[in-house]
Specification:
162 residues, mainly alpha, disordered N terminus
Length: 162
Amino acid sequence: MLLTTPGAVPGVAQELAGKALTRIRRRIETPGRPSATWTALFTDTERTAMREHGRRLVDLAGEYLQHPRRRARIAREALQIGASYGRAMDGHHLPLSQSLDTFVFFRNLVEDSAGSVYRSGAAPAQQQELHRHLAGLLDQVMRGIVQAYEIKPQAAFAGADA
């Protein structure tokens, strides 16, 4: 018999990562995708960094669902990833609304992937709990994006006084 921490779903991390990354890759390669505007602004190095953050975030989502005792640490890391996304987008002068639209595009793909993962092995009450936890983690990413737009580097303000 497999013993798990209450609220944990064994094996969800790998399955979620596989499904989410596949869905994201397919949607990004679709013509007319929402991310087409901002991805054109980024250098190859910046796109690689964004992709690595995305992969880490998908891994964190699975880990968050599988290891409830690690949730506080994982939520802090998700906030930092969101702030990194926000700084990158704000650095290219993208409006916050466009950054959030892009985030929602990716969030929906991760949530859809998670839904198919936990529908296959969880009772309805557990599915709702998992969805709530995942939404909470992804909310941290969104908070990080917004905070990055709100907190400007001090050097930007110093130039405004001159």
